[in-house]
């Protein structure tokens, strides 16, 4: 769809006309994945046309290919800011003050885990005034996952409080709905009975666990038994975008040749996380979502200077054992299993959302209210995740994220 389709000459080429138009603002691959879960709530509604736009972003180079593979209608950013839409959705603040549409903002990850390191008083990423009201313009609605975030907003942007909707977290609900399929996911991944899967996950930035992969991944290869163990690596899409896909694969090439599975940035990692026997992570969203799975967590990195002290990442940092360079890795995995207390991790995961299982209901109601339409006459269900392909195929056939 192009900008000229807003006029009479362009509209003659459309088959369905007169409906409401929804704009998905996708700055990065991470933001795109989050919005796909939300946009699935609008499927099968012939009253709506969804189009995508990709504003300029430092980590946005993978977005055009992702959108092309989705087969989505894309409006160039320069055209999108001159057009009018009935609803816009965004998981990041950059440039959204220029849109001509009622805007709903959503977080792009689990909770609000990071504060701006190195800048005293800079605040929590995603909850600062410039995040909520970029350019001084308030959105139509601010979606947060938990009631605890309302207190932070009352301090940073009190004028946004009437616009806050505590809707929950779509990834939390999708993972929770999929937990009964763990054995099926493991079979689909090609794991044999009794075979153990170790998942190493990294967020992005200088304090992430990716900086320790140079020593961690060789340990996963060299210290774990050749038989009975598989390893998979989940690297934040911003790492791929910031350094280049070729460079990331080059850094990890030897590990890949020796059997470590590197998930591509567009991959849907959630079924792999559910299938894990151990998760080695950091203060990022993937590690926090791992607390839902029942897998023991070890932390390769938990930087105090970048963790929001009021977030569940801070609680995880003092609960999960820290990976040590001085002890055999297999002993540390077994220690994490022996020390694992489900109730401790349940207390942490309960901070991801205060509306467990209700995101779809809450979010759909909000979107249709902003659109000025009645909701479809059916319950918005949470669909379990699809079965993943075998681990051995991920290098040659990247598994795309699916809504």
CATH fold field value of the largest domain: Rossmann fold
Q: What are the secondary-structure elements, in order, as H or E?
A: HEHEHHEEHEHEHHEHEHHHEHEHEHHHH
Q: How many domains, as an integer?
A: 2
Structural class: alpha/beta
User: Low-confidence parts, pLDDT < 50 over ≥5 residues?
Assistant: 1-11, 397-403
| Percentage of residues in strands | 5-15%
CATH C-level of the largest domain: Alpha Beta
Query: Number of helical runs?
Result: 18
Total beta-strand segments = 11
Compute the gyration radius: what is it?
21 Å
The average pLDDT value, as a whole number, equals 91
Judging from the principal axes of the Cα atoms, what is the shape? Answer: globular
Helix content: 25-40%
- Shape-level CATH architecture of the largest domain: 3-Layer(aba) Sandwich
Strand order in space, largest sheet: 2-1-3-4-5-6
State the end-to-end CA separation: 21 Å
Q: Sheet with the most strands?
A: 6 strands, parallel
Structure description:
The strands form two sheets. The chain has a six-stranded parallel beta sheet, with helices on one face. Strands 9-8-7-10-11 form a five-stranded parallel beta sheet. The longest helix is centred in the last third of the chain and has 13 residues, at 359-371. α2 (29-39) links the parallel β1 (20-25) and β2. The protein has helices at residues 8-11, 29-39, 63-70, 77-80, 129-132, 148-156, 170-178, 182-189, 213-223, 237-243, 245-251, 253-257, 270-275, 285-289, 312-317, 329-339, 342-349, 359-371, and strands spanning 20-25, 48-53, 87-90, 103-105, 141-144, 164-166, 196-202, 229-235, 261-262, 278-281, 297-299. α10 (237-243) crosses α11 (245-251). It is of the alpha/beta class and 403 residues long.
């Amino acid at each position: 769809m192009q900008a000229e389709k807003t006029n009479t000459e362009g509209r003659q080429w459309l088959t369905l006309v007169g409906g409401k138009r929804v704009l998905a603002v996708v700055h990065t691959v991470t933001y795109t994945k989050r919005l796909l879960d939300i946009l699935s709530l609008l499927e099968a509604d012939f009253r709506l046309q969804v189009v995508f736009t990709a504003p300029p972003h430092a980590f946005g180079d993978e977005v055009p290919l992702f959108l092309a593979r989705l087969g989505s209608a894309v409006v160039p950013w320069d055209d999108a800011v001159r057009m009018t839409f009935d609803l816009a959705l965004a998981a990041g603040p950059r440039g959204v003050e220029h849109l001509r549409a009622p805007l709903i903002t959503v977080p792009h990850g689990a909770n609000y885990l990071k504060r701006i390191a190195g800048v005293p008083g800079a605040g929590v990423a995603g909850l600062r005034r410039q995040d909520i009201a970029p350019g001084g313009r308030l959105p139509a609605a601010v979606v947060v996952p938990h009631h605890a975030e309302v207190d932070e907003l009352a301090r940073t942007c009190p004028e946004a409080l009437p616009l806050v909707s505590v809707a929950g977290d779509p990834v939390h609900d999708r993972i929770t709905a999929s937990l009964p399929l763990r054995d099926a996911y493991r079979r689909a991944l090609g794991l044999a009975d009794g075979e153990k899967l170790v998942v190493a996950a990294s967020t992005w930035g200088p304090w992430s666990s990716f900086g320790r992969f140079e020593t961690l991944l060789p340990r996963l290869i060299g210290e774990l038994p050749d038989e009975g163990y598989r390893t998979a690596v989940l690297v934040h899409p911003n790492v791929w975008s910031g350094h280049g896909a070729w460079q990331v694969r080059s850094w990890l090439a030897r590990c890949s040749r020796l059997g470590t599975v590197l998930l591509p940035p567009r991959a849907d990692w959630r079924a792999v996380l559910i299938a894990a026997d151990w998760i080695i992570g950091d203060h990022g969203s993937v590690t926090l979502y791992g607390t839902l799975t029942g897998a023991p967590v070890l932390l390769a990195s938990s930087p105090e200077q970048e963790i929001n002290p009021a977030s569940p990442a801070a609680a995880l940092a003092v609960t999960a054992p820290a990976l040590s360079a001085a002890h055999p890795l297999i002993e540390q995995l077994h220690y994490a299993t022996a020390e694992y207390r489900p109730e401790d991790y349940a207390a942490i995961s309960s901070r991801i959302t205060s509306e467990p299982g209700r995101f779809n209901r809450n979010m759909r109601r909000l979107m249709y209210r902003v659109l000025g339409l009645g909701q479809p006459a059916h319950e918005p269900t949470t669909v379990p995740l699809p079965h993943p392909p075998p681990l051995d195929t991920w290098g040659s056939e990247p598994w795309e994220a699916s809504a």
